[in-house]
Amino acid sequence: MNKTEIFNLIKSVKGYEKSLKHDSLEKNKKNVDKPFQKYEFLGDRVLGLVISEYLIENFHKSPLDEISRRFIHLVNTNTLAKVFKNHEFNEIFKHHLDPKSHKNSVYADALESLIGFIYIEKELEFTKNLILQLWKEELNTLPKKDPKTYIQEYSQKKNKVIPTYNVVEESGIKHKPKFKISLKIDDLYVEGEGVSKQKAEIVAAKKMIKLIQSK
């Protein structure tokens, strides 16, 4: 299905516009009278079910960690926002948000709200078909492992141990700290720096990957 056909499918669901009206439009209303968040809450669960089922059916021979990586990619905020914008739903999304604000998370919420509303009106099979059409270009994506996951799996496979990151140095001022983290695997040693321990660990993991791959 092309974008026009998908949009026509959505327009066939009476009242779908309600799910694309953000709570910011009616700031004076009580939360109980704002349906957007409730549709979003339901849509999140429906999306998770449909994507999980698709992955188990189509990648049943893959290890669970790979299926999990695929799932995380398909339901994360950036992917939802990408799907939302690719189908130009942002053009019909009604809100009173700051025009300069970064809207990816709101777009993701809006797509889940739309899914939730359509599920209520059309039930699972219709909604499942719509989701698979919307996500068609993303469904078979296998994202790369993040650096720390790569290092952990490498260390567990090679040495049966989880790698340890150690703080070598902590400097800077309270509101602008700087961390130096070390990572050692066998005779390989690296250090990474960052404004948080997590970022310093990622830098160290990336350096370690380069050493491992150059051996």
Secondary structure elements and their pairing?
Elements: H1 3-11, H2 36-58, H3 64-75, H4 77-86, H5 104-134, H6 147-159, E1 165-173, E2 176-185, E3 188-194, H7 197-214
Helix pairs in contact: 2-3, 2-5, 4-5, 6-7
Give unreliable regions as ranges.
none
From the alpha carbons, calculate the radius of gyration and give it in angstroms. Answer: 22 Å
Mean pLDDT: 88
Beta-strand percentage?
A: 5-15%
Order of helices and strands: HHHHHHEEEH
Secondary-structure class: alpha+beta
The major sheet is characterized as: 3 strands, antiparallel
State the helical fraction: 40-55%
Q: Rough shape? A: globular
Instruction: Order the strands across the largest sheet as they lie in space.
Output: 1-2-3
Number of helices: 7
The separation of the N and C termini measures 48 Å
Tally the beta strands: 3
